[in-house]
TrEMBL record:
Domain TM2 stretches: 23-67
GO cellular component: membrane
Protein name per Swiss-Prot or TrEMBL: TM2 domain-containing protein
Record Pfam families: TM2 (PF05154)
Keyword Repeat annotated: no
Compartment(s) where it occurs, according to its Swiss-Prot or TrEMBL record: Membrane
Lineage, top ranks: Bacteria, Bacillati, Bacillota, Bacilli, Bacillales
Presence of keyword Transmembrane: yes
Source organism, top-level taxon: Bacteria
Major location (coarse): membrane
Keyword terms of this UniProt record: Membrane, Transmembrane, Transmembrane helix
Amino acid sequence: MHNKQDLTLTELMVLNSELKSAEKSTAIAYLMLLGGHLGLHRFYLKRPGTGALQLVLFLLSVVFYFVLSVGAALESDAIIIASTILLILPALALFIWVIVDLFLLPGMLREYNAGVEQDIVQEILRHRHMEQLAGRGRREESL
């Protein structure tokens, strides 16, 4: 694992420049949390599995809401009771999950941005190594 301390001043400037465009914004992540029932904030932070699960829970809630509406229109007690229970379960799970994500979001952002920074540092050091190898090859050719 490489550190920022291994970089030269020029390489640090490149790192900061690259980080500005690659880092995820806290403000945008919290704005997307407003659409948390759709899992937007999780897709934004490259967590598609849990984002898709939140989206599925939301869609299940919507489907059972419409089933409840149909049951109410048909005045069917069995449909109303079953769809109410099936509506409440995914909706409540999603509600609790989004509230928990409200507190987990800063940590998820730090983790994502630290990973991006580490990837960029590795790429800069890989580039430095390639330049050193190319410089060595030129010196050997001149001898």
